[in-house]
Amino acid sequence: MALVDGTDHVDGTNQQHRPVALVTGAGRSAGIAASVVLTLAQTGWDVGFTYWTPYDERMPWGTDPEAVTQLSNQAAKHGAKTAAIEVDLIDPHATAGIFEIVERELGAVSALVLSHCESVNSGLLDTSIESFDRHFAVNTRASWLLIREYAQRFQGAHGTGRIVSLTSDATVGNLPYGASKGALDRITLAAARELAHLGVTANAVDPGPTDTGWMTAEMEAAVLRATPLGRLGRPQDCANLVAFLCSPDGGWINGQLLQSDGGIS
Q1: Could you give the CA distance from residue 233 to residue 214 in angstroms, rounded to a whole number?
Q2: Distance (Å, rounded) from C-alpha 79 to C-alpha 127?
Q3: Residue 231 Ramachandran class (φ > 0 left, ψ -120 to 50 alpha, else beta)
Q4: Rounded to two decimals, what is the model's pTM?
Q5: For this structure, is 51 an active site residue?
Q6: Which of 87, 109, 164, 186 could bridge across to 1 with cysteines, CB 3.0–4.6 Å?
Q7: Please, is 66 exposed, middle or buried when counting C-beta atoms within 10 Å of its C-beta (0-12, 13-18, 19+)?
Q8: How far is residue 219's CA from residue 138's CA, in Å, rounded to a whole number?
Q9: Cα 153 to Cα 144: distance, rounded to the nearest angstrom
Q10: What's the distance, Cα to Cα, between the start and end of the chain in Å?
Q11: Which of 51, 55, 150, 177 is catalytic?
Q12: Cα(206)–Cα(264) distance, integer angstroms
């Protein structure tokens, strides 16, 4: 686990207290998590975020070497402090260290946004045991451990805590991803009840097919045909909803699985 950027990016004109969010999976500029980080920065948050370069290296889109530095620099333009942490979330012992770094560099975490994932296309017949276990370790177990760690450390005022999980309704041809995300839904909805004594809201957001560079031309065409609003989903669409849920205005939404996909579902 490595802290890449924990410097104080707040300028001398903007020293007021800012709440702290932890966003996972922000290793690509084109990704949803990067948009979430920037949108939270724009709306008054300091943000710690995680990423894992080896995952991008083995995926078709490849690595985005400048993404972490650029994301921190862009957040700084909005007065936000950032802490970027490279960590493999398959490690069940990594969770406490993530929170320790963010707390040391930024302060106690008020909002937890789970945007990381393992996503390798395979179906019922061709999914390997190794791939199945990796999907559940990253998408489900790590998310549970992050939520648990967050809850154990949370000391904010009643009603200020936020958990937002990004999920998916993928099934056919994407079995381990969809199944592990389905399990994450249940964990998140359980948190909405089990963490009631803390005044923490917990919601899952399904952004639908989002244009982050993974779709082929054929996939894009199919999504456009199936979406009533006639365009592809954008990372900013999801980021806007996450920022709302994390805001005081979103505090009455709790225990929900929200479809934010232009009507494709």
Answers
A1: 12
A2: 45
A3: beta
A4: 0.91
A5: no
A6: 87
A7: exposed
A8: 26
A9: 14
A10: 38
A11: 177
A12: 11
Tokens at residue 185, please? 């839904």
In this predicted structure, what is the pLDDT of residue 1?
Answer: 67
Look up tokens 């990594």; give the residue.
Answer: 94
- 175-223 pLDDT tens trace: 999 999 999 999 999 999 999 999 999 999 999 887 777 777 887 788 8
pLDDT of residue 239: 97
In whole angstroms, give the CA distance from residue 99 to residue 234.
29
Sequence-distant (≥ 6) Cβ neighbours of residue 65 within 8 angstroms: none
DSSP sequence for 162-178: EEEEE-----TTBHHHH
Token reading at 61: 């889109």
